[in-house]
């Protein structure tokens, strides 16, 4: 068989296997690496012996380098500097102090438990300091953990990849050249990082200029120009200083993504496809080149090394790096568990195995086997259990509690009181000082400022809150505020009181803004009702026997403007009702019912504005036959 056809066959088999693994993982909603590694091993010499990566020769290293550049660039594109800034202290510590903790802890475990020589132990630890966005990204899509934890994990995975890769090459240089001076190692690390930041920053700015000003180019051609520039930047950085290219690609992606480039989504879509292809090819090739016998030959000591890395080193890392953060113990526990290793870790280990063998240094195959064992154990154990752990710890996006309300008025104060009584954090925002004082009188935290300022929303803690609710008297302002909150902070639930129109409906779907309470709610009218004492606060629980009748009866009252549903309690969780919410058996709703008795009668009966409304089952809703509800609502 001709050599060229053999190489062609190898690449075709690799692509088919890789895409098949991606399709299967998407169908089962699990990280793709769970199938990429087994597929690669199955096709390799230890399986059915169809795939032989060594046929590619030095071409394998070329494929690894160029594909890694694409993967890291795509990671940089997803690096939101504004979100990163909100958790910057913890993230900086994870990338700096956390790297050193993993390096020291991993090397001691590899030396004392795995019985590796100190140089090889340090090399192993330097490789596994990285986590990797290629594994964490798909994992977080399935788990849907709260935004603050997701931002930390994504930021750590993206930023620590180049830092860890450069650190690993510095350690390798030290081993190969016999230079044990730590000052030279530190200088080499900082020099590579500095070159990467400089070239990547300039290159990312150049890419953004092309997208903004080169209007004569089609979108398809612009995407290819960016790819050409990316690889050019990578090669230039590598020529100046080896392994500085990895930092270059991440910085270029981050600068480009945060330059307000029009139609950036088109580039993201293109680069996302290339990343999937690159990941598929790399994992299949590297897994096929792995010897299963070398993994079993490691012994129990190496298995204990990985366990110590997972259950001792990582928790210590998180403990020190998030010590002064506002993360609770549940969030820290999840961060301590989730640290899967990805493609950068695998590619560096494969390359180091080749380089050590070429230099006649023992341990090349062993370190590669130990790194792949780490990848397999972290991905399988953490990937399959992360969803269950997030639900058990109650840190999924749907479990996130807390409420930020824009607009201090009688109706919003009533809603805030219910959440505060549940022990959930509540923050209100309003520019009216007098309205703010009314909320403070009820021990509710208020920020007297404009919610259009994202800094105010950040001060309110929206990043860690479960619900954002805009309910000023201006519906258009409410909708704009909700859009900004959804785009900038992505809380799990974004609601607003706004008038129904085709334009707002389509926009709300796109930006995940829901209409609060009911359609076309007259908030000024209900605030006046509350001020005049012309309301009753009621509650009802839906039962399976009368669910349809209850729903229809209450819906009639809503449509006639006599009742406004406020809150829904389902399985112990309290949430603001949306206009299109479907009620189920066992749901308990809290509502306001208009009581049109004269204000004078209210005052004579002892009611006043400051008296808190009692929550009760109202006979107007609970006991009147459903056939008479329509008649009642007309009176």
What's the tally of helices?
28
CATH class of the largest domain: Mainly Alpha
The percentage helix is 55-70%
Tally of extended strands?
A: 11
Tell me the strand order in the biggest sheet.
3-2-1-4-5-6
Please provide a written account of the structure.
- Residues 404-497 form the RCK N-terminal domain.
- Residues 13-392 form the Cation/H+ exchanger transmembrane domain.
- The chain crosses the membrane at residues 12-42, 62-81, 93-114, 120-140, 152-172, 184-211, 223-240, 270-288, 295-314, 334-357, 369-393.
- This is TrkA-N:Sodium/hydrogen exchanger.
- The strands form 2 sheets. The chain has a 6-stranded parallel β-sheet. Strands 9-8-10-7-11 form a 5-stranded mixed β-sheet.
- It has 2 domains: 61-393, Na+/H+ antiporter like fold; 403-500 and 511-605, NAD(P)-binding Rossmann-like Domain (Rossmann fold, 3-Layer(aba) Sandwich), CATH 3.40.50.
- Mean pLDDT is 86; it is low at 502-510 and 624-635.
- It contains 28 helices and 11 strands.
- It has helices at 3-28, 33-43, 59-77, 81-86, 88-95, 97-112, 118-127, 133-143, 147-177, 182-213, 219-240, 245-257, 264-288, 292-296, 300-321, 329-337, 343-358, 364-393, 410-421, 433-441, 454-459, 475-488, 502-511, 523-532, 547-559, 599-604, 619-622, 629-634, and strands at residues 403-406, 426-429, 445-447, 467-470, 493-496, 513-515, 535-541, 563-570, 573-576, 588-594, 615-616.
- Helix 16 (329-337) runs antiparallel to helix 18 (364-393).
- Helix 19 links the parallel strand 1 (403-406) and strand 2 (426-429).
- By secondary structure, it is α/β, with parallel strands linked by helices.
């Amino acid at each position: 068989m001709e050599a060229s056809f053999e190489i062609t066959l190898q690449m075709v088999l690799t692509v088919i296997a890789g895409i098949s693994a991606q399709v299967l993982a998407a169908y089962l909603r699990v990280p793709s690496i769970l199938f990429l590694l087994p597929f690669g091993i199955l096709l390799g010499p230890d399986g059915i012996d169809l795939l032989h990566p060594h046929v590619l020769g030095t071409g394998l290293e070329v494929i690894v380098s160029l594909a890694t550049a694409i993967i890291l660039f795509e990671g940089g594109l997803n690096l939101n500097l504004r979100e990163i800034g909100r958790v910057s202290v913890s993230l900086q510590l994870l990338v700096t102090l956390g790297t050193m903790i993993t390096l020291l802890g991993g090397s001691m475990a590899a030396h004392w438990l795995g019985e590796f020589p100190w140089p090889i132990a340090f090399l192993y630890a330097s490789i596994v300091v990285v986590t990797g966005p290629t594994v964490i990204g798909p994992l977080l899509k399935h788990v849907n953990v709260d935004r603050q934890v997701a931002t930390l994990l994504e930021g750590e995975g993206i930023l620590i990849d180049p830092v860890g890769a450069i650190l690993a090459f510095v350690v390798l240089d030290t081993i190969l050249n016999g230079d044990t001076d730590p000052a030279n190692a530190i200088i080499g690390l900082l020099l590579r990082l500095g070159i990467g930041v400089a070239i990547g920053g300039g290159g990312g700015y150049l890419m953004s200029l092309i997208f903004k000003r080169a209007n004569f180019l089609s979108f398809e051609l612009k995407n290819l120009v960016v790819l050409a520039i990316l690889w050019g930047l990578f090669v230039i950085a590598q020529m100046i200083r080896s392994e500085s290219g990895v930092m270059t690609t991440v910085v270029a992606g981050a600068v480009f993504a945060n330059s307000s480039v029009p139609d950036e989504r088109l580039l993201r879509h293109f680069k996302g496809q290339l990343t999937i292809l690159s990941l598929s090819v790399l994992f299949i090739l590297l897994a096929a080149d792995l010897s299963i016998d070398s993994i079993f030959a490691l012994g129990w000591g190496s298995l204990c090394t990985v366990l110590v890395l997972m259950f001792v080193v990582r928790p210590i890392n998180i403990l020190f790096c998030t010590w002064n953060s506002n993360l609770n113990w549940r969030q820290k526990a999840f961060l301590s568990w989730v640290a899967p290793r990805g493609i950068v870790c695998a590619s560096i280990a494969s390359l180091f195995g080749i380089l050590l063998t070429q230099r006649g240094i023992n341990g090349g195959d062993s370190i590669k086997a130990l790194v792949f064992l780490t990848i397999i154990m972290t991905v399988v154990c953490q990937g399959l259990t992360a969803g269950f752990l997030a639900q058990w710890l109650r840190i999924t996006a749907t479990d996130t509690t807390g409420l930020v309300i824009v607009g201090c008025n009688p109706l919003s104060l009533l809603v805030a009181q219910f959440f505060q009584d549940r022990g959930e954090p509540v923050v209100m925002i309003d520019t009216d000082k007098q309205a703010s004082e009314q909320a403070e009188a009820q021990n509710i935290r208020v920020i007297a400022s404009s919610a259009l300022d994202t800094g105010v929303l950040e001060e309110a803690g929206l990043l860690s809150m479960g619900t954002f609710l805009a309910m000023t008297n201006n519906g258009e302002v409410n909708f704009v505020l909700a859009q900004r909150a959804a785009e900038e902070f992505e809380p799990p639930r974004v609601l607003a009181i706004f008038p129904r129109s085709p334009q707002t409906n389509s926009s709300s779907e796109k930006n995940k803004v829901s209409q609060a309470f009911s359609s076309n709610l007259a908030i000024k009218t209900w605030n006046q009702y509350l001020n005049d004492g012309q309301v009753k606060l009621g509650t009802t629980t839906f039962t399976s026997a009368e669910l349809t009748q209850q729903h229809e009866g209450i819906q009639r009252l809503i449509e006639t403007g006599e009742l406004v549903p406020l809150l829904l309690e389902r399985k112990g969780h309290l949430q603001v009702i949306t206009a299109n919410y479907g009620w189920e058996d066992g749901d308990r709703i809290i509502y306001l019912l208009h009581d049109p008795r004269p204000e004078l009668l209210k005052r004579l009966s002892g009611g006043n504005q400051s008296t808190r409304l009692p929550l009760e089952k109202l006979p107007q809703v609970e006991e009147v036959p459903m056939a008479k509800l329509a008649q009642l609502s007309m009176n």
